[in-house]
Amino acid sequence: MSDIDRHLIRELTAPEAADPARTGGKGANLATLLRAGLPVPAGFVVCTPAYRQFVREHRLDDQIGREMSRLDDDPASAEAASRRLRQAFESAALPGWLREAVEAAYRALGEGPVAARSSATAEDLPEASFAGQQETVLDVVGAAELCAAVRRCWSSLWTARAISYRRRHGIEHEQVAVAVVVQRMVPAEVAGVLFTADPVTGRRDHVVVEAAAGLGEAVVSGQVTPDRWVLDARTREVLTRPNRDSAGLTRDQLDRVVGLGLRAAEEFGSPQDVEWAVAEGRCWLLQSRPITSLFPLPPAREGDGLRVYLPVTLAAQASPSR
Q: What is the pLDDT of residues 235-259, one digit of tens each?
């Protein structure tokens, strides 16, 4: 790979891949998991400099500035801006130098089916929740399809939802960029999400696993009602199990998925929301991000005894006035 290619594209195993400024939140987290020895599908990242160069070459930054300056509080204005910007991104061809770099990286990966996932620079941070705002394109086959998927992922930085979220939270549109994570597809027999703390009750001694047959995107997007388990994080005792077992997740697979999720939480030093899959008997981690809905724990002080923190949701339910 040439020096120019290395500036634009990095393997997930490269040390630089753990830099969220280059590979976005999703890419950096996957690189961190790989570095820790956790099972992550092989892949590469089309880095943020490629996005920025594409934007400059097609003068899309001018159009972005115009569209953002016209925004008002009417949701229709974000919808209209999104429609025009996404069309501009998806109709602009990749420059030859970038297309060749993507094709070379795809060949090195084996030219089989891949998943292309957007990875924004402000995504998967502890203080913000961008989950689900950007695009994932599954079962991409062939270099031409992959180049189109890259443009589609880039354009998803400009969905109406993403535009409105950044505007509401004071995030400068021009400061955000998006990388694209390209990984070998995992032919999942069962997949889903795992929370290393209960996002509903706030209990950090519980692990929640949700699973469905097939690819995990249906669980993440809410298209299916998954099987759900709640386990004790320390003993792995199953506290709540599904009424049915439609996912086909075995107890051994459940234990392995929980173990991998807890290792991810230990690596990042905070409770994690983990996407996972099981294929041909092997468990894979597809993504890990902080759980943003948990109330932060105050720092412990020397000499403190046992402290108990009661989630507001539970306190409200227990209140006799309700």
A: 999 999 998 877 889 999 999 999 9
For residue range 143-157, what is the model confidence (pLDDT) as tens digits?
A: 999 999 999 999 999
Containing structural domain, residue 216: 190-290
What does the alpha-carbon distance between residue 55 and residue 43 come to, in Å, rounded to a whole number? 24
Instruction: Based on the fold, state whether residues 139 and 256 are members of the same structural domain.
Output: no
Count other C-beta atoms under 10 Å from residue 135's C-beta.
19
| 124 and 164 assigned to the same domain | yes
3-state secondary structure of 229: strand
Maximum pairwise Cα distance, the chain = 68
User: Which is it for the CA torsion 147, 148, 149, 154, positive or negative?
Assistant: positive
Q: What is the pTM of this model?
A: 0.85
Q: Which helix (H) or strand (E) holds 285?
A: strand 282-290
Q: Quick one: the chain helix, strand, coil %, rounded to 5?
A: 40, 20, 40
How distant, in Å, are the alpha carbons of 113, 136, 273 from that of 139?
A: 5, 10, 23
Give the three-state DSSP class for 13.
coil
- On whether residue 77 sits in a domain, the answer given is yes
